Amino acid sequence: AGMLLTEVIGGRLFTTVRDALGLTYDCNFQLAFGLQNSSATTYRLVVTSTPAKIDDALAAALRVLRGFSGQRISAREVERARMTLLTRHETELKTNAYWVDLMQYTALGAVLAPHKTVQCISDLPLMYEAATVDDLYEVYQQLGLGAGDIFTCVTVAGKEEPPKREAAPPQMLAAAAAAAGGGGVGGVGGNATAAAAAAAAMA
């Protein structure tokens, strides 16, 4: 369910913050499941833009992330995420690196992941097939999304001094409400890039 949720959130971020609003070059969402180094499971949301637009891009990305409470995940989104993961699984089974990743903690299950066995690898496609919208919300509801739960940072790379930030037009900000909608692609050109990250531990 966590992997499917990651795909769904990534899809909404891409179609809204990049395609509809034109505020970012790239955006992605990742879950890091705590095992060896920490018992906490964390998530990370990253957007890349120009310095002039990075604050608006980060704000829009956080609105999308928090917007799943009001705009529920659809069965179509789950099916699209399921097909993406199944296709990726079949392709990456041909690589040693993927097998090493899948096999992690199976030999030390009693210590780090007591419920993970080799059988879990063969069951992975079945778990993707069986997951429902409610399963994804079981994971989503554990995300820390409050003002005091999320930590954000912005970094800038480039030779030029970042220009003074200009607020995005009201109509552009209003478009973020259509998280899964289409829209025109705006420009994000410039000689400097900025990256913003939001992270938090799951409850």
Describe the protein.
This protein has 203 residues and is α+β, with helices and mostly antiparallel strands. Helix content is 41%, strand content 15%. The protein is built from 7 helices and 4 strands. It has helices at residues 2-20, 54-66, 75-92, 96-103, 119-130, 133-140, 170-174, and strands at residues 26-32, 42-49, 151-157, 193-201. A 4-stranded antiparallel beta sheet has the order 1-2-4-3. The longest helix has 19 residues, at 2-20. Residues 176-191 have low confidence and may be disordered.
Pick out the low-confidence regions.
176-191
Write down the Rg.
19 Å
Structural class: alpha+beta
Biggest sheet descriptor: 4 strands, antiparallel
* Percentage beta strand: 15-25%
Strand order of the largest sheet: 1-2-4-3
Mean pLDDT score: 75
Question: How do the helices and strands follow one another from N- to C-terminus?
Answer: HEEHHHHHEHE
Counted beta strands: 4
General form: globular
With helices defined by DSSP (H or I, 4 residues minimum), what is the helix count? 7
> What share of residues is helical?
40-55%
Write the layout of secondary structure elements.
Layout (H helix, E strand, L loop, with lengths): L1 H19 L5 E7 L9 E8 L4 H13 L8 H18 L3 H8 L15 H12 L2 H8 L10 E7 L12 H5 L18 E9 L2
Antiparallel strand pairs: 1-2, 2-4, 3-4
Keywords summarizing the entry:
7 helices, four-stranded antiparallel β-sheet, alpha+beta, single chain
Quickly describe the structure:
41% of the residues lie in helices and 15% in strands. It is built from seven helices and four strands, in the order αββαααααβαβ. Helix 1 (2-20) crosses helix 2.
